[in-house]
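HOLO CASE FILE
Compound: BV8
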Amino acid sequence: MKKIVILTGAGISAESGLGTFRDEGGLWAQHRVEDVATPEGFQRNPELVMDFYNTRRAQSATALPNAGHKALVRLEADFAGEVVLITQNVDDLHEKAGMKRVMHMHGALSGALCAACEHRWPAPMIMAPGDACPACKAPAARPDIVWFGEMPYDMDIIYDHLADADLFASVGTSGNVYPAAGFVSEARRNGARTVEFNLEASAAGALFQDRRLGPASETLPAWVSELLGA
Ligand code: BV8
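Model generated. Tokens follow.
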């Protein structure tokens, strides 16, 4: 087996204390997605949206990676073939755990973007509506996050990876949001074996040939030990 492609979602960060989207008490329980994770919501109430991401940026700053994140670092370091990690998460727990290659297809809390000139820079801990872009000075700073209705990042590269994956693993995602939820079908179409890691089978669960149910902090270390034969 030469290439493993892994997609992670909020579930891998749950045991690090970061809220998921759809579990009871999850992020969306406090807010409607249309209000805080769409360009229209940002236009309508930029203070609410900036506050939503400032809060998550602060939570993410103090969160620590768990054994699930660390198992993927071990796999990336010791697997003889290629490991490609794509995350839907906007936290930096994969990086904190020591992952070398992380593709944030939905952006990252650590990034700021200018809505006027598309300049990108490291986000300050607290962003406010009307913050100036350091490049063009327009009062157009926004979180570098992919909202609903916006195109996720690196899609071409991601589909190239899915085209020659031997194994596709999805970890801690409910399979509700596209195009990420469609990756398993793309991988299968290209002949990859597919495995889902979740607390319980997700919406797209039936599409996976295998599944490992339980907390990722337990299921991922066991899986990596099997793959590495140790
Ligand atoms: C686009 C950043 C087009 C923001 C996010 C109708 C049909 C199909 C599609 C659509 C449709 N209507 C609209 C669409 C498109 C839309 C979409 O899919 N909507 C859904 C709701 C139907 N998608 C988009 O808009 C995307 N863009 O389509 O662009 C386009 C084309 C051309 C040109 C321009 C545009 C963009 C979507 C990106 C939105 N941004 N994140 C932020 O973070 O604030 S989405 C956000 O929610 C996450 O990033 C993630 O992707 C998504 C789902 O979250 P999950 O990670 O899955 O978390 P969730 O809570 O749902 O699940 C957690 C799972 O973990 C659970 O299964 C749980 O059991 C498990 N778990 C919990 N604890 C553990 C665990 N597992 C293991 N161990 C544990 N301990």
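CASE NOTES: The chain has a mean pLDDT of 96. Residues 3-18+66-106+153-228 form a domain with the Rossmann fold fold (CATH 3.40.50.1220).
CLOSED: yes
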